[in-house]
Structure formats: structure tokens, C-alpha cells
């Protein structure tokens, strides 16, 4: 949408501590929109600036593991209502088609408080946009400013400046602008930049019915909800269902120097022949599967990594999601950790929060999130390492307990209670017997 004159009036207003915060979010991805939903429900005034028009979203699937699925439900986002299906198990083969592991997760998944589901990303994004801008939800609808690329962020004045020269000031800025974040430069400078991990990935979708119609492939999809992987030494193919088990999402990760693409940006058009060549030594089943690829929708994605960032926050500006910890896809936790970041911010900024506490609460946010996010990031790098001839590192559920058993909302609320007790202990108190206005510190 185009910002109206009224929606451009985002200068912080003087008043009591009960005034809602004016929150400016840069980026309308999954993390940015989740934060916007939670903050509007706490009574804050939220504007989200998005570079794109959000008119042609990229189709791919994603994991919503228990650690983030429950957070979405807190905001009345129920992925099963828009086609998410359960992840019932994992089957792993080597590149020759030899079975390495088969694990039915249906019993194991019952120990988690929320279901591990597989979701079409576009459907989740549409649900988040709808919730953010809905007139029927608690709080004022989020102002979603599309086609509004941010040129710079000023941490000294809490101001966002767009590429067209217009500027907006608020009480709090959230940088949810992805791996190429402009906000990150304002927080830590431009010395830390994303870099190629050495791997790239083809992404594509295949209707399940096409596999059902093939005698060789039919056996792969006879049970709903199973993720299937084929591992080579330096490349792998991952397939799992989405859209109520009617569409198979595939990701083909490989050395990036083998790829050829047509086009620029994060979603290069990929070459089907190039894909077939890269996986030419995989088993006949994989060859039959890849023959079904529709080249017109084949995308190629460079997998980026980044060194650990020295700070998540500066003054009243905070980073979340890929802007602070870009994830490789080997555990499917990138979106989930971004949702955790967003939920933590919302837990720390309830209605009636004092503007004087913004910087302190943002520092607490960093303390809560830094170790966990980067530990999962390290697990992901480990899971994505190349195999060798004697390597049995095939169990992708190795880190499930750490990843899945965490409740970002409850943990953040507990941390906030502790922080508030500590902050209260630092407040000077008036002792009995002292003259009014005479303060004695205790």
C-alpha cells in the first residue's frame, strides 16, 4: 500500500508511560509479520516497511516444528487450517538408493506439546499478512507499506529513511529485513556480511498425483507425511509433502560451483538439464523423480551464511530473523527461530511498557536469544556437512530435543520477571522518617 499523510505521522508523542509504542518494522517476512501481530495485540502502533509489492511470492514449503508451531497458535494462526500436514516420519537413502534410516515419528511426536507440521510458505505468509492487517483483531491494524524500500536506519534518532527520501521516526525499530539487511548495517556496521556457504539449492514442487501415477515412484508416497532424503558425498536431495499431502516440495542441495542459472536475485531460474547432470550418479528412482520437474518453475538459490554478529541491538533498534542469524536449510529451523525472535520481543513489550525501558528490554532480548539462536545455527551447519565414505551422520533428529522443547514466550516472560526484580532493586527508595522529596538509596 501507499502510505497516506496520516500514516506518515509516526513521530513519538510525549505522554504517560501508558502510551502505546510507535513501532517501525523493516521487512514483512515471517519474522517481521509475527512481531507485528504480537505487538499490535499488545496495543502498540505498528508500521511495516516492505521492499517488494508482495504480489508474486515464491512458492516453497517449510517446517513448522513444535518450538514455533505453538507460538503461531498463540496468535490464532493454525497452519492446519491452510493445508499444513504432519511430519510423520523420516526415510534416508544413500545416493545409490540403499536404505540408511527409517524412523516413524508419530509416537515420538506425541511428547511435544505442539505438532511438527510441514507448510506451504506462501499460505503461512498470507495468513500472517491477514492477521496483521485484520480489522477484527485486538489492537489497531498494522500499516503494511509495500513497495517501500528502506535506504537507511538512524539509530540515534530511531528513524527509517526510504529510498524515495521520505523518513519516519518511532519509539522502536525492528530490523527483519533478511540476509541483506539494511538495518544490520546501522546496528553493527558493514564489516559483517553474508557469504556463500559453498552450496546452492534447486527448489521445486511436484504434484503428488504425478508420483502416484508412476509405478516406480508410487511407493515413495504411499504413506502421508514422510520426509525422504537421498545423500551423496557433497550433495543431497530432500523431499517432503505440503498442502494436505497433495504437493511434494523438493530441495536439491549441491556445490554451488556446479550450478548454472538464468536471472538475478535470490530466486534465479534454474536449468533442468543442469539439475539432472548434478544428480546423474544418483539412483534410477531419483532420475525418474527429477524427470517430472517443470523447468518453468525451477528456482536456484545460493545458500548464504554469516559470521556470528557482535550485537543484536543498538539504542532502540533490534534485529531479528535472517538479518541477525541467516540459516542454512539443513534442519528447517530458519523460519522457526525467526518466529521465536518475534515472540520474545512481544513478550518483553506488553502494553503499558515505559518508553524509558526500551533500551534495557532490548538488551534483555539479545541476552535471551543470542546463545540459543546461534547454537541452533551451529547444529544446522553440522547437519549440512559433507559426508565421507565412512560417515554415518544421517540422523537428522539428533538435535530435536534442544530445538523442539523450548517455549520462547514462557521463557521470555520468566526472564522479564527476573529482569524487573533486578531493575526494581536499583530504584532509589524513600525511607520512613525522611522528609518528603529526600531520597535515600538502599
UniProtKB/TrEMBL annotation:
Keywords: FAD, Flavoprotein, Monooxygenase, Oxidoreductase. InterPro entries: FAD-bd, FAD-dep_Monooxygenase_BioMet, FAD/NAD-bd_sf. Pfam families: FAD_binding_3. This is FAD-binding domain-containing protein. The keyword Transcription regulation does not apply. One of its GO terms (molecular function) is FAD binding. It comes from the Eukaryota. Residues 22-380 form the FAD-binding domain. It comes from Fusarium redolens. Belongs to the paxM FAD-dependent monooxygenase family. Gene3D superfamilies: FAD/NAD(P)-binding domain. The keyword Transcription does not apply.
Amino acid at each position: 500500500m501507499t502510505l497516506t499523510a496520516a500514516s506518515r505521522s509516526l513521530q513519538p508523542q510525549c505522554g504517560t508511560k501508558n502510551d502505546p509504542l510507535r513501532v517501525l518494522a523493516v521487512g514483512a517476512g515471517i519474522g517481521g509479520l509475527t512481531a507485528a501481530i504480537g505487538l499490535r495485540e499488545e496495543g502498540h502502533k505498528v508500521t511495516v516497511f516492505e521492499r517488494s509489492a508482495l504480489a508474486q511470492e515464491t512458492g516453497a514449503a517449510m517446517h513448522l516444528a513444535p518450538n514455533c508451531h505453538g507460538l503461531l497458535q498463540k496468535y490464532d494462526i493454525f497452519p492446519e487450517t491452510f493445508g499444513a500436514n504432519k511430519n510423520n516420519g523420516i526415510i534416508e537413502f544413500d545416493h545409490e538408493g540403499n536404505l540408511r534410516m527409517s524412523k516413524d515419528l508419530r509416537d515420538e511426536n506425541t511428547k511435544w506439546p505442539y505438532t511438527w507440521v510441514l507448510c506451504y510458505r506462501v499460505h503461512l505468509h498470507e495468513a500472517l499478512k491477514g492477521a496483521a492487517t485484520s480489522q477484527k483483531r485486538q489492537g489497531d491494524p498494522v500499516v503494511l507499506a509495500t513497495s517501500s524500500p528502506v535506504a537507511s536506519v538512524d539509530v540515534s534518532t530511531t528513524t527509517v529513511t526510504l529510498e524515495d527520501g521520505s523518513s519516519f521516526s518511532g519509539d522502536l525499530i525492528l530490523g527483519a529485513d533478511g540476509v541483506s539487511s539494511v538495518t544490520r548495517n546501522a546496528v553493527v556496521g558493514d564489516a559483517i556480511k553474508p557469504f556463500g556457504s559453498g552450496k546452492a539449492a534447486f527448489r521445486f514442487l511436484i504434484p503428488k498425483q504425478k508420483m502416484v501415477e508412476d509405478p516406480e515412484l508410487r511407493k515413495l508416497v504411499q504413506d502421508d507425511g514422510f520426509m525422504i532424503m537421498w545423500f551423496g558425498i557433497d550433495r543431497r536431495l530432500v523431499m517432503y509433502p505440503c498442502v494436505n499431502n497433495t504437493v511434494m516440495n523438493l530441495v536439491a542441495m549441491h556445490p554451488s560451483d556446479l550450478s548454472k542459472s538464468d536471472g538475478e536475485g535470490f530466486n534465479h531460474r534454474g536449468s533442468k538439464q543442469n539439475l539432472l547432470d548434478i544428480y546423474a550418479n544418483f539412483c534410477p528412482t531419483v532420475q525418474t523423480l527429477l524427470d517430472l520437474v517443470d523447468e518453468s518453475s525451477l528456482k536456484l538459490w545460493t545458500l548464504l551464511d554469516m559470521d556470528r554478529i557482535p550485537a543484536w541491538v543498538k539504542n532502540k533498534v533490534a534485529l531479528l530473523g535472517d538479518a541477525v542469524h541467516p540459516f542454512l536449510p539443513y534442519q528447517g529451523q530458519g523460519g522457526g527461530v525467526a518466529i521465536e525472535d518475534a515472540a520474545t520481543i512481544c513478550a518483553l513489550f506488553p502494553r503499558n511498557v515505559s518508553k524509558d525501558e526500551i533500551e534495557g528490554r532490548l538488551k534483555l532480548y539479545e541476552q535471551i536469544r543470542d546463545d540459543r539462536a546461534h547454537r541452533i545455527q551451529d547444529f544446522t551447519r553440522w547437519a549440512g556437512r559433507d559426508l565421507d565414505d565412512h560417515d554415518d551422520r544421517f540422523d537428522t533428529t539428533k538435535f530435536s530435543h534442544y530445538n523442539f522443547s523450548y517455549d520462547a514466550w514462557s521463557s521470555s516472560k520468566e526472564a522479564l520477571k527476573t529482569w524487573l526484580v533486578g531493575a526494581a532493586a536499583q530504584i532509589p527508595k524513600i525511607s520512613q522518617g525522611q522528609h518528603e522529596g529526600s531520597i535515600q538509596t538502599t
